[in-house]
Amino acid sequence: MKISIDDLHQAFESRVRLGIMSALAVNEYLDFTSLKEYLDVTDGNLATHLKKLEKEKFIRIEKSFIDRKPNTKYFITEKGKKKFNDHLAVLEQIIKSQK
Amino acid sequence: MKKEQDYIKDIAEIRSMMERSSKFLSLSGWAGIMAGLYALGGIIVAHRIYGFYPDEIFYSSDKLPNVIVLALLVLILALMTAVILSRKKARDKNEKIWTATSRRLVVHMAFPLVSGGILLLVFISKGLIGLIAPLSLIFYGLALVNASKYTIDDVKYLGFIQIGFGLISSFFIEFGLLFWSCGFGIIHIIYGIYMYIRYEK
């Protein structure tokens, strides 16, 4: 199979979204605050990127309340995991082919 | 259009994020060295000044309250040093210290440590002083093995060694203090030096 740069999913173009997916890939789930701490971005910025990933069905959201405060958990979906791994494979190929 | 450098940077970023979000890597080797020194200092005071040397499972000493205060002091000092040094290391790397990762590390250490601590208090109240050394080593080792998933993997081996020392010392109660100073003192110092050379130098 020939792999080209076109195969890179545009959802992973942003480094914040790539960061979100990397963190969720190695954790069962993360909440909004934890993601914000890891990525060092503003609330609004993170929310926009999360929304975009959710729209692609790469992540799934579970809302609950802790002490009456809303707490949102973010999980990676099967689809998200697959696309993320594909993305890694393409990155690897690109770097290999250019060596 | 992204360039090759960008892709390499992407991959570096992915790897760093996976690591940072699953493992707490700002543990300092110096924290281990200092904890070992505090422990040795504490044992010397307990033995030389308070004449504390449990050589049987049932052991009594009128200096027991002093020894307990001393032990708590050593524990608090070691924990404070670990937090301060880790915070400095995290800050040097431009990372936060109190994240989901470090919280998880603390929680996973706390379960074996708190259960062991309560058990030890019960044993102390029943005069089973000779069991403090082996049990504290075993529970501390279990805490390390349990927490190693969330930090540098080598912590696991430190845990195995502590469990080993604990089990052996339960056979030789009369050498409890000696095993205790080896486990909490000397092994911590050696481990701290190893960590410092391997990860920080």
| Number of helical stretches of at least 4 residues of chain B | 7
Largest sheet of chain A: 3 strands, antiparallel
How does the overall form of chain B come out from the CA principal axes? Answer: elongated
Largest interface: A-B, 22 and 18 residues
Radius of gyration of chain B: 19 Å
Number of strand segments of chain B: 0
Mean pLDDT over the residues of chain A: 88
Give the number of helices of chain A: 4
Cα end-to-end separation of chain A = 19 Å
Just name the CATH architecture of chain A: Orthogonal Bundle
Give the number of domains of chain A: 1
Residue fraction in strands of chain A: 15-25%
Trace the largest sheet of chain A across and list its strands: 1-3-2
CATH level-4 homologous superfamily of chain A: Winged helix-like DNA-binding domain superfamily/Winged helix DNA-binding domain
Structural class of chain B: mainly alpha
Gyration radius of chain A, in Å = 15 Å
Assembly form of the protein: heterodimer
Which CATH class of chain A applies here?
Mainly Alpha
Question: What is the beta-strand fraction of chain B?
Answer: under 5%
Which stretches of chain B of 5+ consecutive residues score pLDDT under 50?
Answer: none
Looking at the structure, the CATH topology of chain A is Arc Repressor Mutant, subunit A
Write the layout of secondary structure elements.
The complex is a heterodimer of chains A (99) and B (201).
Chain A: H1 15-25, E1 30-31, H2 32-39, H3 43-55, E2 59-66, E3 69-76, H4 78-97
Antiparallel strand pairs in A: 1-3, 2-3
Chain B: H1 4-20, H2 29-49, H3 64-92, H4 100-125, H5 132-147, H6 155-171, H7 176-200
Helix pairs in contact in B: 2-3, 2-7, 4-5, 5-6, 5-7, 6-7
